[in-house]
Amino acid sequence: RERGRPPLASNPMNILIAEPLAPAGIELFQSQPGWNAIVSNPKEYAQHLAQADALVVRSAVQVNQAVLEKAPKLRVIGRAGVGVDNVDLDAATQAGVLVMNTPGGNAISVAEHTLAMMLAMARHIPQANASTRAGKWEKKKFMGNELRGKTLGIIGLGSIGREVVKRARAFEMRIVAHDPYVTSTIAHDLGVELLELPKLYAAADYLTLHVASTPETQGMLSREAFAQMKDGVRIVNCARGELVDEAALVEALASGKVSDASLDVFSKEPPPAGFPLFAAEGVLATPHIGGATEEAQEIVGVRIAEQVVEYLTHGIAINAVNMPALSPEQYRALGPYATLADRLGNFAAHIASGNPHTVRLHYFGKIADNATSLLRNAGLAGVLARSTSHRANLINAMQIAEQRGWEVVERHDKRSVHTDSIRIDVETDSGVTSVEGAVVLGKPRLLQVDGIYCEAALAGFLIVMKNQDVPGVIGHVGTVLGKNSINIANFSLGRREGTSEAVAIVSTDGLVPESVLAQLKENPAVKFARSVEFRG
Questions:
Q1: What are phi and psi of 361, to 5 degrees?
Q2: DSSP letter at 335?
Q3: Which amino acids are annotated catalytic?
Q4: Which helix (H) or strand (E) holds 377?
Q5: Which residues in 201-215 are b (16+ Cβ under 10 Å) and which e?
Q6: pLDDT in tens, 276-308
Q7: Threshold 0.90, pTM exceeds
Q8: Beta-strand (E) ranges in 258-355?
Q9: Nearest CA to 337 among 424, 444, 457?
Q10: What gap in Å lies between CA 91 and CA 5, rounded to an integer?
Q11: Is it the case that residue 57 has pLDDT exceeding 60?
């Protein structure tokens, strides 16, 4: 079975749990009939990789190329948490392995930790605790500030950022935010004012980060950014250490531009000995525990188990990070069309001649209203399946096509009088092969080949023939197949209007070998004959 092609629920599965997972999550895996949950740890999990269909990790295990090479059966990696920094997404995609995470599962825990950091800075709680436990009573030294009335700048209004908003509003803070992917309507509903970064920097008394680490966001709190901020600003980072230029933060703390910084994350974890920030005044540090609550670990453990089970049993990829993101409802609606696209692509590849350089996918009818990236990947996987040495699937098909230098074009015809259908054109150095199909009673069905109407089920074993529609061809086919003990299950013939150019699709009970195809082509009217096999 190819990677990326989810098996039926009844098939046995080996789920390798490489890091601590909530007991309820483990129990969910164990409750699947015939499934085997291998509970291991970061030091010993590698010995089980060869048999793993799924790998579940948190943040300690680094899933790189070497790990993937030891796991030939692996279909999915589940990250019980938000970030996937510890997973080589390019390598996983190349291997056709789905990667999924659980965004929002620890949102409340991280948001509460963010507010705890803010309160600790406002009331000097760590310093006051140390002083009091040392036998001192320094009430005047630890005069604090209220959060009420202060301006909180939030960078990133994802699930965590929005939970921070809810809690900060309870403290009667003014909240401004920056997020280029959030509309003004959503911001208004949250009671948040959207600002460009320079204005947010200038306005914030407290600044908290809740964005992913990307090339655009890495080092965003730089010397230039700190220069635009208020004197005495307080910084909170419970997102990713790479977001902050740590050397610039040391300087900003020393100059008083930043009065306090609360950090739960660092560019290198754990930070090395002699880490400069730990010698700076006004730094509160915690060991990446923002999401480390019993409640959050329970939520993400159960969610990742549910997602892995859903993918391996029904092919529905929830919170995937290296393939088209669709809701479960969209997957269910588009699933039959993904199968159709895959089989059309496979069919086209079998009957095309020459080396492909362009694949065009044309969507007709209501399906053209949908996000079609899933259908695109399925169609490409079908085209690639016949020739690639890699196992092409929904996850890596686009990447492999790009590596081959193929041009991939999508066209949407929403107003077409067609039924919901898909046409795939494969252009090679020898010409263009065009096939079109639809979903009929839930099954993929061929409608046209090179513009000639010829209907047949895209299943089982087929012979595809291009021939002149002259007397004796059908009889010749029957005679040759009968002589070779090959039973005909169905026969469909179509002819281009006004010509004798025809296409025949013969469904048989078994794969027709090349020797029999050669016998079919002995009739001068038969110009082309090839076998196509569909599995599953």
A1: -115, 125
A2: H
A3: 240, 269, 288
A4: helix 373-385
A5: bebbbbbbbbbbbee
A6: 999 999 999 999 999 989 999 999 999 999 999
A7: no
A8: 258-263, 283-285
A9: 444
A10: 18
A11: yes
SS3 106: coil
In a 3-state reduction of DSSP, which class is residue 277? helix
Long-range contacts (CB closer than 8 Å, 24 or more residues apart) made by 218-226: 218/242, 218/243, 219/243, 219/244, 219/245, 220/155, 220/244, 221/245, 221/248, 221/249, 222/248, 223/248, 223/251, 223/252, 225/197, 225/201, 226/251, 226/252, 226/257, 226/258
Residue-by-residue DSSP string for 505-520: EEEESSPPPHHHHHHH
- Structure confidence at residue 391 (pLDDT): 64
Question: In this structure, what token pair is assigned to residue 33?
Answer: 């009939």
> How many Å is the Cα radius of gyration of the chain?
30
> Which amino acid, residue 519?
Q
What are 480-526's pLDDT values in tens digits? 999 999 999 999 999 998 898 999 999 999 899 999 999 999 999 99
Find where tokens 């005495």 sit: 232
Tokens linked to 521 = 């082509």
DSSP E strand stretches across 98-226 = 98-100, 151-155, 174-178, 193-194, 206-209
Strands (E), 205-306: 206-209, 233-237, 258-263, 283-285
Angle at 475 between CA 472 and CA 477, to 5 degrees: 110
Residues forming a β-bridge with 279: none
Q: Amino acid identity of 96? A: G
**394 near 377, Cβ under 8 Å?**
yes
